[in-house]
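Hi R.,

Here's the chain you asked about this morning:
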Amino acid sequence: MVSTCSLTFFHDIFLSLSLPPFCSFLLPLSSFLPLSQIIKCKAAIAWEANKPLSIEEVEVAPPKDHEVRIQIIATALCHSDAHILHPQFEGSFFPVILGHEGAGIVESVGPGVTNFKPGILISDSN
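And the predicted structure, written out as tokens:
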């Protein structure tokens, strides 16, 4: 599972994903939450095709086995994200939080994760 890229993005704040390691820069651990804590954050949610995104508060569960929860510093919306918003996909993928090109700080790791530690900066493009 570590080599897969299953992810759930929470625009501008948090995401959970399973990826190989990217960076080794470590920030102080004092600012990170306990693993079992649910986080509330804002997300840009697409509720239906061809409609504006809605900024709403969402809850992000703690990471599960082989998952990493990341505080997103920056993310991009690419052509594949725009494609999902096209009217031909109405009802197929909604609601959805777009953005799969992110950079951020590892906030917490789930059981079985050995290549990441809280505080490491990562990006999907490394």
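The first strand starts at residue 7 and ends at 9.

Let me know if you need anything else.
M.
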